[in-house]
Design goal:
Strands 10-11-9-12-15-8-16 form a 7-stranded parallel sheet, with helices on both faces. Strands 17-27-26-18-25-24 form a 6-stranded parallel sheet, with helices on both faces. A 5-stranded antiparallel sheet has the order 2-1-4-3-5. The longest helix has 16 residues, at 196-211. It is built from 20 helices and 31 strands. It has 5 domains: 4-104, 3-Layer(aba) Sandwich (GIY-YIG endonuclease), CATH 3.40.1440.60; 116-176; 196-379, P-loop containing nucleotide triphosphate hydrolases (Rossmann fold); 381-426 and 489-623, 3-Layer(aba) Sandwich (Rossmann fold); 634-721, 2-Layer Sandwich (Alpha-Beta Plaits). It is of the alpha/beta class and 727 residues long. The chain binds adenosine-5'-diphosphate and zinc ion.
Amino acid sequence: MTADSRKFRSVPVLVPTPAEGPYTYRVPEGMDPVPGSVVRVPLGPREVAGLVWEGPGGAVDPSKLRPLSEVFDCPPVTAGMRRFIDWVAGWTLSPPGMVARMVLRVPAAFDPEMPAEGLRITDTRPERLTPARRRVIELAGDGLAWTRSGLAHAAGVSLSVVDGLRDQGVFEAVEIPPRPVVPEPDPSHAPAELTDEQSDAATALTRKVAAGGYSVTLLDGITGSGKTEVYFEAVAETLRKGRQVLILLPEIALTQAFLDRFHDRFGARPAEWHSDLAPRTREQVWRQVADGRVRVVAGARSALFLPFAELGLIVVDEEHDAAYKQEDRVFYNARDMAVVRGHLGGFPVVLASATPSVESRVNADQGRYERMVLSSRYGGAALPELRAIDMRSDPPERGGFLSPVLVEAMKQTLVRGEQSLLFLNRRGYAPLTLCRVCGHRFRCPDCSSWLVEHRFRGQLMCHHCGHHEPKPQACPECGTLDHLVACGPGVERIAEETAAFFPEARIIVLSSDLLGGVKRLRLELEAIAGGEADIIIGTQLVAKGHNFPGMTLVGVIDADIGLANGDPRAAERTFQLLSQVTGRAGRTGRRSAGLIQTYQPDHPVMKAIISGDPENFYQREIAERERAQLPPFGRLAGIIVSAPTAGEAQTHARGLRAAAPAAANIAVLGPAEAPLALVRGRHRWRLLIHGDRRADLQGFIRAMLAAGPKPRGQIRVQVDIDPQSFL
Ligand code: ADP
Ligand code: ZN
């Protein structure tokens, strides 16, 4: 050992850069970082947050190292979480620093929460006692600490009254410790009375929690069977054991009703975590998850990267949902990563769904997961009767999209005073606008996609990049006035047609681009649940998990949309979406129906869906996947190369392909121009890597990237393990 290395201590730190591993920093005198410590470090000209990593610092001359600027006074990230970061980085082929960045995205949360300034009454009394002063003194007579504004507000006086008393020494300043964002949930607050079937599943789940250790349970229950009530019992048991719980939900819009239900069961709400939180709340939740004061978090996929102090259970609700896949920087599937997190942390994971992903179903069939089935709806409600409407024999009126069969069913539903839901997975008014005179089509200047007309907004919009322009009166190509025509339907257009059929009906259109955002959406959902609408027209947003008690008819406008493209998951997606959306009907026991408009009623997927027996679908789809060696019987990864010009993207993609190592069980398909060839002005080419079940895709791709051309300038290469999208 040299004198230098004894004098200097150094530590590895993960910083938010694309580097392969941590950087080494010198530890200044008086600082004592441990693995997991959150630190501030210089990086180039900036200062960034980093995570102290394990192992010795690199073998760099310590005198050349830059020092840590600060070790934050917050709990170190646990060893379980650090292994998780490494694992996610290795699996997704992302730099570990970029994964750590997902954990450290709330810089203001690293400092301890400041206590609030409070006032407490002393023995001094004012010289003159006005009625206002008397009210303040009476209130504060409880001897507790009050905030200045809280006291003024409670006493119904102005702040100056309180200030005056403080200046006279009637109050002394004290510190009020920061409040928890949510009160502690009580596992025994109000347990539901479970049915026999629910109770069996709940008991089995709580046993797993009580026993501890890693396990994955697939809670496979039809819509309305009470999966939530069942997994709440696992949540309760975890809380009793003194561990924290994470519940992942696919959609913020769903959260509101969920929070209320949780409150009913546990007497307090869970902390929320999603992109719509106020910055201050975000900081508090992060901090209080880290120090263990928050016991339960309900959140979107990014909640997986919160620094839980003692996580003991993850529930992934609607586990099949594509919203769990992040396709930005680090491409990961939160459902799969939740299982990994449970494995590394040694605790149970529950995956809940009425339409499990084929992957999870196969994992259960093969014994890696335990499958628990809830086969009946709560309260004796029956599933809707499903029927196909053959659009070839029962076509809509000219220019319309609703078959007379569906219109008649809606009429009867309306007469009975019940609700109908029309489902079409297309936002806006029409997916394509063209000029009847010259045939000009409106397309996005930066993407290879048509502009979608949004009539409420009076705009033509690109759904890929957000580009929008007012809809013109005249064709920009030939100049002809008033000859632009909308092609195909979106939900707004279906609403227009519906209103023409039923002018008296109260109609609500629901889609994610609703003006007024999440708040408005919540209000609309409440209104629907409260029976304030007769007909609801919505995109996939309405398919997810909502409880609409008065709904007895679901009509699917275009069931064939999803089946048209060559996506290997098209059949599964269509099955899940249609089952979920028709599952909104008949939740309270009234007779209900799901009518599915299709031009291919004999398509095997359509037949399996309409049969009402999900096993028809799963057995067929599982056999199909096995035959084609598609996931989970084989492995897929996408590589997307994008560049400012098509030529650069193509050349780079070809270079990668040429650099692929030889492997008997892995094939490289492409490169080919991506179906979505242009997005935000960037040209895209794709490679698809297909391996058998045991293939080391990550190793293969790593070797390929190492041997291939390096992305220079504006060229970008993104690896997508287990792609959900093939566009
Ligand atoms: P799922 O998530 O399986 O679709 P939910 O958990 O949302 O089903 O339950 C459907 C409805 O039935 C909810 O309104 C729920 O409150 C109610 N419910 C289910 N089980 C019970 C129970 N044991 N006691 C009271 N209400 C229940
Ligand atoms: Zn665009």
